[in-house]
Amino acid sequence: MTIEFKTPDEIEKQLRQVQVVAENVMRPESRVLDDSEHSRPLNFVHMMWPQMQEMERANLEASLRRARNGGNGESPKSEGPKSDEPKKPRTGNLALVHMIEMLSWGDAGVYLCIPGGGLGGAAIQAVGTPEQKERFLRRFTEGDPKWGAMAMTEPQAGSDTSNIQTTALFDDATNEWVLNGQKIFCTSGKLAYAESDGLIVVWATVDKHAGRAGMKPFVVEAGTPGLKIVKVEEKLGIRASDTVSFVLDNCRIPADNLLGESREKKDGETKGFKGAMRTFDATRPIVAASAIGIGRAAFEFARDTLAKQGVRMDYESPRWKLTTAQADLLDMEIQLRQAWLLTLKATSLLDSGGDNKLPASMCKVKAGKAVTVITQKAVELLGPLGYSTQTLAEKWMRDAKINDIYEGTGQINTLIVAREILGYTRKELK
Ligand SMILES: Cc1cc2nc3c(=O)[nH]c(=O)nc-3n(C[C@H](O)[C@H](O)[C@H](O)COP(=O)(O)OP(=O)(O)OC[C@H]3O[C@@H](n4cnc5c(N)ncnc54)[C@H](O)[C@@H]3O)c2cc1C
Asked: Which residue from 153, 417, 419 has its CB within 8 A of the most atoms of ligand 1, so it is best to mutate?
């Protein structure tokens, strides 16, 4: 087996374009968007929308083609080339993590405002039927910018998702699902529901006593009556990103908005929680890439600022000859490279259709911790300049921590890694 470490030329070319946006559109607005939480990075949104539409279109078409060609059409992992097609490795996810690393180097909060299906779209791709993909995802390929979001977390159900209390009851008379409950910390929830013709994938239980087996994903489209945004969060970091709480009060949605199932199968076997996990296998490397982008921004800034004071990176001398600052800078770079290699492994497996659950959690744990340490170290090495709002170092330190929290905290992903390596079940190791 050969391992190819060279970034494919196509991705490299795309990356240079993204770098231009990161440098010239994101960085200049970083401070002002951080200061004025809840204002929108409109320049960025409109600049990225054509590219995102293109990407959404390619993903949708590929997914529908797989379904037509006899794949089950339910998972990006199920794709295999037709026997008469030349075997070209899939690199869609690889391109995505490269782009997200660069955008987060530009500004992680602004990057999170990127239009497109987002987490909601990932859930639909993971468990939706071909008909649902067409119906829900086509909107992200046309018209004005739109957002997708996913709402799983509730006040009593964060890490412990089996404790979700939002209910979904089927009303036979109207052929609708009726959702009731409360969701908190939903990224891009307002953009998806109130500011565009987007959608939110809401996780609810059809049987509170069934734990994870009762959990199912439902699509609530923008403007559906019965969903009310009750809070827009003010946060430590990623302040340009929209994070909301909402209540569902007899929110009625069509029977066919239950993801992965046809009307006739509404009481049958569901993909439920396994669907959520499949979404995370695809999105955890994305969070890791975002963490690495922030970490690289802080590392490069600290390295270049210290270089002006005569502290240079030294890759040659033995460690005992380095100054503490030089050794710290080397450690920062090592952490970044370790996290990036794990992220590339998780992503390549995803692209090739392999099981990437272990590396997906591994890269998320590693990158979430690395970015926290690296950004704090940058502030430390820069002294008063690092703590001052004159530079972005203190902002990167605030933006970093979220990567160790959402999509499963560092502790929860460490548990997943331990279970996978040691062969324990969820019940045996919790
Ligand atoms: C800015 C932001 C955006 C978010 N966006 C979304 C979103 O779009 N959609 C969504 O559904 N959710 C979202 N979340 C929610 C996020 O996924 C949860 O905050 C996260 O899963 C942790 O849940 P919790 O906050 O309830 O913490 P808790 O589960 O209450 O955990 C508290 C602490 O205990 C630790 N802990 C818990 N259980 C264990 C255990 N078994 N072993 C060891 N340690 C444990 C945790 O690691 C954590 O440190 C977002 C959160 C934030 C802050």
From this structure: 153
Instruction: List the residue whose alpha carbon is closest to atom 12 of ligand 1.
Output: 153
232-259 pLDDT, tens per residue?
999 999 999 999 999 999 999 999 999 9
- CATH for 366: 1.20.140.10
Element (H, E) at 180: strand 176-187
How far, in Å, from the CA of 77 to the mean position of ligand 1? Answer: 27
Three-state SS for 285? helix
Judge if pTM exceeds 0.85. Answer: yes
Q: Length of the chain, please? A: 430
Going from the Cα of 54 to the center of ligand 1, the distance in angstroms, rounded, reads 33
Domain of residue 62 covers 11-270
CA of 406 to the centre of ligand 1 (A): 6
Q: pLDDT tens across 46-99, in order?
A: 999 999 999 999 989 999 998 888 764 444 444 444 455 556 678 889 999 999
Residue 75 lies in a domain: yes
User: Which residue minimizes the CA distance to atom 44 of ligand 1?
Assistant: 411
Stated as kind and residue range, the H or E segment containing 243 is strand 243-254
Examine the fold and report which residue of 270, 300, 326 is the final residue of a domain before the chain moves on: 270
Residue 410 lies in a domain: yes
CATH code: domain of residue 32: 2.40.110.10
Query: How would DSSP label each residue in 306-358?
Result: HHHTT----SSS-GGGS-HHHHHHHHHHHHHHHHHHHHHHHHHHHHHT---HH
Positive or negative, the CA dihedral 1, 78, 95, 244 is negative
